[in-house]
Structure formats: structure tokens, C-alpha cells
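Quick one, C-alpha cells below. Sequence please?
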């Protein structure tokens, strides 16, 4: 039994009442569809405006686009400790129905009716599959991308169709399988107008996150009634069937 597994069990046992609050979300959206929104360069205000009335998950620095749109996510999720620490004030006031953060963040944000906390199980899984948790009150599997965490939340909440948008899966600088930075000078990281910078932040671990995306694909294939589609305009994520956002919304 690896240390990450033992640590996650200990975290759950010590914070059982907090973690079990997540149970109220289980199956809450059974049979519905949702959209998981990334912050990649393909994301546009126009597409977000089209998603008003849809159930959406926003993440990380999505609040930077709020001044340009009246769209707001239904849910907000973040699992990057450096981002959470740097943007505490923005997260405290993010406009959404509910916020999901790692258990460690409770020391900063406290117990709130609109905040829930999960045990983020850290596990070095490459080149194998990541953990895809079906018991969110126990733990959320680390996939080195918040999108993977949002997928687990979506499944736990009962969504049958998950659409990804603005998840380009392509970065100007990322770490390869040996932990060595790979630089692409012609690649943008964030949506138009974002002031975000990767300086001082965790660099994307693209090899591991690619495996996590494939894990989610395998999970969906093995669980009828749960399907993941990629509605991102362009990008490098090819783990899922690509669909046209406008066609989905007009269907």
C-alpha cells in the first residue's frame, strides 16, 4: 500500500464530517449534461455567452474573464495549491453556486455553505492509469490537470454528458516525462486578454495529464451513460470525440 493511499485515508478519517458533506452532491444532476471550461487560448467570450443557462464548471483563473462577460460558472473547482494561495481573494468572491477545493484550503477559507473540500490523493501513476474516483467524499484522484478533477466531480454528480471547452492541452512551457521543461515559443497559454503568467506557478505536466485524460476515456467507455466530448475549438486534446459546440447547443 503506497504512502499516498495511506495519507489520503488518514486525511479522510481526521476530516470525515467535512469530506462527507460532498455526499449531498451525489447524483444531484442525474442524466443531465454539463460543460467543463478551461482557460486555454481557444476560449472566447462569445462561446461563454452561449452557455448561459447551461450547467458549467469553471476552474483556476477563469475569474479573469468575468469583466468581459455576464456568464458565470455554476461550479468552480481548483486543486492547484499555488494558484489557490495566490488568488485567495478572487476565489473567496467568485460568483458561482458552489466551490470545490482541496481539504488543505479549509484553513484559508473556513467552513462555508457554498464551499466543499475534498481529499486530493497524490499519486505518481505514469505510465499507468490515474485514479478515477467514484467516491468523492473519500478522495479525488490526481491527474495533474484540474479538468480531470472536474470530470470526477461530474460523474459523481450524475451527469451523463460532459463537454470540454477551452481545453487546448498545449502550453508554451511544460514538463516532459523526465521533468525537463519543454518550450514552445509560438504557443499561447491563456484566453485573450488574460494577464496570467506561469512565473512562480506549477508547470503543466503534460505527459501525466495526457495519461489522465486517457484514463477518463477508458472509464467513460466502461461506464455506459457517461460520455465525454471535446467541444474545444482546436487544441491538442484528442482523447475524446470532437463535437461542434454550436451544433450541441442547437440540438
Amino acid at each position: 500500500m503506497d504512502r499516498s493511499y495511506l495519507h489520503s485515508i488518514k486525511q479522510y478519517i481526521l476530516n470525515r464530517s467535512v469530506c462527507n458533506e460532498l455526499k449531498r452532491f451525489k447524483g444531484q444532476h442525474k442524466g443531465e449534461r454539463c460543460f467543463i471550461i478551461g482557460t486555454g487560448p481557444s476560449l472566447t467570450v462569445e462561446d461563454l455567452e452561449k452557455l448561459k443557462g447551461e450547467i458549467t464548471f469553471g476552474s483556476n483563473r477563469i475569474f479573469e474573464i468575468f469583466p468581459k462577460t455576464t456568464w458565470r460558472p455554476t461550479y468552480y473547482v481548483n486543486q492547484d495549491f499555488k494558484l489557490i494561495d495566490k488568488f485567495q481573494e478572487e476565489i473567496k468572491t467568485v460568483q458561482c453556486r458552489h466551490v470545490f477545493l482541496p481539504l488543505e484550503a479549509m484553513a484559508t477559507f473556513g467552513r462555508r455553505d457554498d464551499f466543499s473540500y475534498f481529499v486530493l490523493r497524490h499519486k505518481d501513476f505514469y505510465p499507468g492509469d490515474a485514479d478515477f474516483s467514484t467516491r468523492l467524499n473519500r478522495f479525488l484522484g490526481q491527474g495533474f490537470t484540474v479538468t480531470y478533477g472536474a470530470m470526477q466531480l461530474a460523474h459523481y454528480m450524475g451527469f451523463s454528458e460532459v463537454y470540454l471547452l477551452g481545453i487546448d492541452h498545449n502550453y508554451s512551457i511544460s514538463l516532459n516525462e523526465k521533468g525537463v521543461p519543454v518550450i514552445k515559443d509560438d504557443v499561447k497559454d491563456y484566453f485573450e486578454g488574460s494577464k496570467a503568467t506561469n512565473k512562480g506557478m506549477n508547470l503543466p505536466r503534460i505527459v501525466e495529464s495526457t495519461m489522465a485524460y486517457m484514463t477518463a476515456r477508458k472509464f467513460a467507455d466502461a461506464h455506459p451513460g457517461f460520455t465525454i466530448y471535446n467541444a474545444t475549438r482546436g487544441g491538442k486534446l484528442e482523447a475524446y470525440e470532437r463535437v461542434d459546440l454550436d451544433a450541441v447547443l442547437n440540438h
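DSSP finds nine helices and twelve strands in the chain. The CA atoms of residues 174 and 180 lie 8 Å apart.
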